[in-house]
């Protein structure tokens, strides 16, 4: 394998870990990803390890790993989003919201991702007006950044909210637009 041919390169191990995870072999995924992290202990690869650990079913350990990354790389967008998502899985919604709101304050790509994540959180809580407002603001941010991919993702998500909420909700949204 490539991992055997290049034993000092963590990339093949990261990819192998992802393959194991996709095959629902979570213990093996964590093991090989941990080997990759051992080759680059202070890298962003720790986020991969946190993701594999979460998939294995240990959200507390995954959060611990992500928090270590955030101490070293406090503005890393992937670490921020992973932390927020893990907090959601742990049912710590106010803390997750705080992480996502912090991303919005950073602007740029973090704002777009933070708004999309807040929209997901709001939708999960049945807060359709708030989700719609976050997605609309995310669209504005994506337009400012000229980020076409994120722009289309958020437009599609907004359309799905309006479709799922039905004509009655769409009418209510028109009558009672969300406050920014």
Structural commentary:
With 180 residues, this protein is mostly helical. The protein is 81% helix and 0% strand. It is built from 11 helices and no strands. The protein has helices at residues 2-5, 10-22, 26-39, 45-56, 59-72, 77-89, 93-106, 108-124, 128-145, 148-164, 166-175. Helix 2 (10-22) packs antiparallel against helix 3 and helix 2 runs parallel beside helix 4. The radius of gyration is 19 Å and the shape is elongated. The protein starts with a helix and ends in a 5-residue tail after the last helix. The model is unreliable at 167-180 (pLDDT under 50).
Q: How do the strands and helices of this protein lay out in sequence?
A:
Elements lengths: L1 H4 L4 H13 L3 H14 L5 H12 L2 H14 L4 H13 L3 H14 L1 H17 L3 H18 L2 H17 L1 H10 L5
Helix pairs in contact: 2-3, 2-4, 3-4, 4-5, 4-6, 5-6, 6-7, 6-8, 7-8, 8-9, 9-10
**Class from secondary-structure proportions:** mainly alpha
Number of extended strands: 0
Q: Taking Cα atoms only, what radius of gyration do you get, to the nearest Å? A: 19 Å
Unreliable stretches, pLDDT < 50, 5 or more residues?
167-180
Helix and strand element order = HHHHHHHHHHH
**Portion of residues within helices:** over 70%
Main sheet summary: none
Number of helices: 11
pLDDT average, as an integer? 84
Distance between the termini: 53 Å
User: Beta fraction of the residues?
Assistant: under 5%
Overall geometry comes to elongated
